[in-house]
Amino acid sequence: MNETFLELIFALALIISAAKICGYISIRLGQPSVLGELLAGIILGPTLLNMFGTLPAFSEETHVHETITELAELGVLFLMMLAGLELHLSELVKSGKVSALSGTMGVFIPTALGYGTAVLFGLGSTEALFIGLALAATSVSISAQTLMELGVLRSRVGISLLGAAVFDDILAILMLSVASIMVGGGATGGTSLLATILRMFGYLIGAAVLGYWLIPRLTRYVQKLNIFMGVLAFTMVLVLIYAWAAEVLGGVAGITGAFLVGLLLAQTPFKGEIQSGMTAVAYGFFVPIFFVNIGLAVNLGAISGSDWIFAVVLTVVAILSKIVGCGVGARLGGLNNREAIQLGIGMVSRGEVGLIVAAFAVAQGVLGQNAFSITVFMVIVATLVTPPMLRAAFRQKPQQTEQNKPMLGEKS
Questions:
Q1: What residues have CB less than 8 Å from 37, skipping those under 6 apart?
Q2: Which domains, from first to last, does the chain contain?
Q3: CB–CB of 164/96 below 8 Å?
Q4: 346-368 pLDDT, tens digit each
Q5: 130: nearest Cα among 117, 140, 149
Q6: 228, exposed or middle or buried, with CB in 10 Å at 0-12, 13-18, 19+?
Q7: What CA–CA distance (Å, rounded) separates 376 from 331?
């Protein structure tokens, strides 16, 4: 075995062990396991132990961290596929009004408040715009995991939350496209924006219609072939293809494609078999790597001096703006006050989506390193506080709450 591979397997053993141990401790303390897994990344990352920079088992010349990041990307794809598998397509359609209003207001209000906060602390308009866009992003994978642990993913709030995340993803990417066109200053900006919109909706409609007709038939055909673990392997291939097509053909996040696969496979008679197999693969290996990798990607020590004031204020604005924006949208859509707050809290996490926006701005040369570190701090704190806030928001009352009642047609 070569040295790089030995470093990789040692790193994976360390990451998975830390994730499961910290997840266990988190559960014992009354919190979701995902909180512990996120904190495991903070502990192992450059903020504290800096495993890749200090441990003699890792050399600077190898690209082990990049490989782990790629495995983490697979983890979030499988996680979102499982979230989609938990739902019925008809339930998601019924939540359309709430999802649309909540997702839309959950983009525009955080963007405006983030922009205003950045300008208040002396940043230029372009830099402030991209910080606002980082606040607009939502990484629903962490909330989905928490809701699955709490057993309320299929509640009215859970379904609306996942639908709102789709609207959030589309709007955030559209606004990022507009911002990049403005920065580039190209003459074909209007044409580029129209092309972006057409790509998005073309992919979503095409993938949904084709998949609704084709995926159940192909799954039955694969099952009849009597290939060992054939349906499970076919599911993984579908997730990878849909995620690839979402990014390359549709211009939307790959997790949207993975989530769509889960929704479509939930309509097949093989849902139980797929869920059992994919849960073992995802939670035994890939998903812990994803959560730990979030912490490995950030160095909170890079923030110093007066920048901490900006970082803390921006983080507070990021948390409150999502709760207010998405919550008001959910309330207008028909949810009660408690449900609206629960949905708003579920949309707080920025995760990898916020990091992608910030990294894009740095690559475009419009976001400085100080502003980038502050944005990363905001992303990581917003991500960390989401699971315990969700658990507190869904804490059981003496009577069964409305959002924990079975969906229409579901056995209690």
A1: 19, 22, 23, 26, 288, 291, 292
A2: 3-404 (1.20.1530.20)
A3: no
A4: 999 886 667 667 767 776 778 88
A5: 117
A6: exposed
A7: 30
The 10s digit of each residue's pLDDT in 191-223 is: 667 787 788 889 989 999 999 999 999 999 999
Q: What is the pTM of this model?
A: 0.75
Rounded to 5 degrees, what angle do the CA atoms 355, 349, 304 make?
A: 55
The interaxial angle of helices 156-184 and 337-346, nearest 10 deg, is 50
Token pair of 118, please?
């950045």
Say if CB 311 and CB 374 are below 8 A apart: yes
Given pLDDT bands bounded at 50, 70 and 90, which one contains residue 401?
Answer: very low
The pLDDT tens digits for 137-165 are 887 778 888 888 888 888 889 989 988 88
What is the C-alpha to C-alpha distance for residues 206 and 196, in angstroms, rounded to an integer?
15
Task: For the chain, report the end-to-end CA distance as a whole number of angstroms.
Answer: 53
When the pLDDT of each residue in the chain is averaged and rounded to a whole number, the result is: 84
